[in-house]
Amino acid sequence: MFRKILYHFGSRAVKIYSKIMFKMDIFHHFHIPRGAKIIVANHPTTTDPFLLTSISNGQAAVLIKDILFDIPLFGKYLHWAGHIPVKKDGGGEAFERALTLLKKDITVIVFIEGDLSQFLHKIKKPKTGAVRLAMLSGKPIIPIGIGVKMKNIHSISSVIKGVRELGKWYFKGPYALTIGKPINIKGNVMDKNKVRYLSGWLGRKISSLEKESSKRLNLSK
């Protein structure tokens, strides 16, 4: 109960902040349904997880680098709000936790690249976690393409427990989301060729949605 209250408090705070500081441009090919789903997006900025939870239409848990859980106060918030730490040397534990949450009717948010995008408008080799989660849970994937303005990204380097971490923060400005239609994926998770093929296809779908978002930002100059 406490986690749910904290999550909704944080989500409401993000919504208020985004209304004040961001020019949100959201286009729906399909409105996000209630209930458990797997939201999958590209990841141009460190701010993305917070803005995606604010439009998830229900409680959601984000897969986030475990090192961010070591930041004083902020890390405690991530833990208490029910987000999922992903270890650098393997995401097996995070995957199992995400699967458990989906079965409890909680949405999971996954970044298909598994990390921040290296370049705008270009998605790195897609990870397979989202497709495998969809196969095992039976929940739909909601693909989202995020578009931002390069000039509004602030690269901030910090040291967390002796490890240097680069954040690409987006504090204000135009922020575009293009939400695709739900994708239902069926198949054997042990069929690695099919999993890789579908992950690549999903990556291309998200890249196409990102281009839609970026095009709207360029047209709105």
UniProtKB/TrEMBL annotation:
<feature type="domain" description="Phospholipid/glycerol acyltransferase">
    <location>
        <begin position="37"/>
        <end position="149"/>
    </location>
</feature>
<dbReference type="GO" id="GO:0006654">
    <property type="term" value="P:phosphatidic acid biosynthetic process"/>
</dbReference>
<dbReference type="Pfam" id="PF01553">
    <property type="entry name" value="Acyltransferase"/>
</dbReference>
<keyword id="KW-0808">Transferase</keyword>
<dbReference type="InterPro" id="IPR002123">
    <property type="entry name" value="Plipid/glycerol_acylTrfase"/>
</dbReference>
<dbReference type="GO" id="GO:0003841">
    <property type="term" value="F:1-acylglycerol-3-phosphate O-acyltransferase activity"/>
</dbReference>
<protein>
    <recommendedName>
        <fullName>Phospholipid/glycerol acyltransferase domain-containing protein</fullName>
    </recommendedName>
</protein>
<keyword id="KW-0012">Acyltransferase</keyword>
